[in-house]
Amino acid sequence: MKSPRFLSGYTSLEKSWVIYDIGNSAFTLLVTTLIPIWFNTLCERAGMSSIDYLANWSFATSAATILMIFAGPVFGALADHKGYKKRLFHAVLILGTACCAFMGIIGIIPLPAAMVWILYLVIYVIAKVAYQTSLVLYDSMLVDVTTPERMDLVSSNGYAWGYIGSCIPFIAALALYLTATKELIPMSTAILLGFGITALWWYVVTIPLLKRYRQKYYVDAKGSNIGESFVRIGRTLKTLITKERKILLFLLAFFLYIDGVYTIIDEAVAIGTALGLDQVGLLVVLLLTQVVAFFFAVLFGKLSQKYSTVTLISIAIIGYFAVAIYALFMKTLWQFGIMAFIVGMFQGAIQALSRSYYAKIIPPDSSGEYFGIYDICGKGAAFVGTMLIGVTTKLSGSVNIGVGTLAFLFLGGLILMRAADRAK
Predict the structure, then answer these.
(1) pLDDT recorded at residue 3
(2) Residue 393: what pLDDT?
(3) What is the CATH number of domain 11-217+224-422?
(4) Alpha-carbon Rg of the chain, whole angstroms?
């Protein structure tokens, strides 16, 4: 694959690592747009209300992230053994892309409506667990593909090009969806092709990384690799609690603020749909948000060469806190657009800089294990935010109040981030 001109000056391995973000981000964009919209269609066929739709979607997302609490550290620790990381990465990549494609097939299977939406959620959970496991391994590769001095830049460009590159398969999927809304082709056909294109894109753009990546940092296995992995996880958790105060405080901060970030990413379209906003308008707004996220991720990557990474992360957390408060008053599509623009400003920065900051403070030979724990505190712990929205929405009957409660996660994260910065 020809590397983007923007990446001139980067090594071929750095470019291949960045390009994988273009692949996996295509699935992320599908999760935040067409997947919840298609699920809403399946729910309507089963006679489900909008409140139950949002709650069930939130609960399924929570189930996927709870499973990651167990899968992430185990796969990460196992991947630290010599020669394991790329093999495990390839295996979960195949599982994730296959499930992505199968979600498009479900709509044409002749089953009762009540069974279809349940089967859809089950496959969605498996796909998301595979996707998130691939990211545990992918993030841990950062120590192998570049130097500590370049981690902020490389990590930021991964997210930046992921945002803009993922628009290519999404535009194709969106065009098919819009064609189906005009009744030019069956909706089930549009979804089948859209999901298939995304799955193929995700796998194909990963090929350069699969060819070039070599694991430089690893640990020597003692006995059973799986058994040793559990031993190392326990030992590392004990070390974090007793000795690594800086890493521990950062992980606690990350647990809170990134939970809110991923909840907003995962639930954006579901929230807009539950508010009764035009679905096509939502998709267009989120497509434009990808462009905003691209430019601001690149900008924050450059700013990281002049300003403290902790300062930049703190600014992004404050931006998200403002988004959560703003969500209390959001009613129309243009108000949703303003929220999406602000999210786009900080979305890539907070993820990229958190990843590179963490990579610089952990031991490189245990990067897979540490990033498994990192994923628990990130994507694996996002069940708190989704459950918070699901339960609060159920109790209050208000989508706005459900989203607004995320402000508490950002406030707590900011306080702990500043504490981590002062720790030794």
Answers:
(1) 45
(2) 76
(3) 1.20.1250.20
(4) 20
Q: Please give the structure tokens belonging to residue 207.
A: 């090929």
Q: What is the pLDDT of residues 238-269, one digit of tens each?
A: 777 777 788 889 999 999 998 888 887 766 76
Residue 89 Cα distances to 40, 47, 80, 132, 370, angstroms: 32, 40, 12, 11, 16
- Half-sphere exposure (CA, 13 Å, Cβ side) for 242? 6
Model confidence, pTM:
0.76
Cβ atoms of 330 and 400 closer than 8 Å: yes
Q: How confident is the model over 35-68, as pLDDT tens digits? A: 888 888 888 887 777 777 777 887 887 788 788 8
Query: Which two structure tokens, joined as six digits, stand for 71?
Result: 């899968």
CA 53 to chain centre: 21
Name the range with the highest mean pLDDT among 36-40, 45-49, 195-199, 294-298: 195-199
The pair of three-digit structure tokens given for residue 91, joined into one six-digit string = 């295996």
Q: 3-state secondary structure string, the chain?
A: CCCCHHHCCCCHHHHHHHHHHHHHHHHHHHHHCHHHHHHHHHHHHCCCCHHHHHHHHHHHHHHHHHHHHHHHHHHHHHHCECCHHHHHHHHHHHHHHHHHHHHHHHHHCCCCHHHHHHHHHHHHHHHHHHHHHHHHHHHHCHHHHCCHHHHHHHHHHHHHHHHHHCHHHHHHHHHHHHHHHCCCCCHHHHHHHHHHHHHHHHHHCCHHHHHHCCCCCCECCCCCHHHHHHHHHHHHHHHHHHCCHHHHHHHHHHHHHHHHHHHHHHHHHHHHHHCCCCHHHHHHHHHHHHHHHHHHHHHHHHHCCCCCHHHHHHHHHHHHHHHHHHHHHCCCHHHHHHHHHHHHHHHHHHHHHHHHHHHHHCCHHHHHHHHHHHHHHCHHHCHHHHHHHHHHHHHHCCHHHHHHCCHHHHHHHHHHHHHHHHCC
Please count the other Cβ atoms lying within 10 Å of the Cβ belonging to residue 1. 12
Q: Which residues lie below 8 Å from residue 211, measured CB to CB, with a gap of 6+?
A: 16
Q: Are 290 and 164 in contact (CB under 8 A)?
A: yes
pLDDT for 1:
44
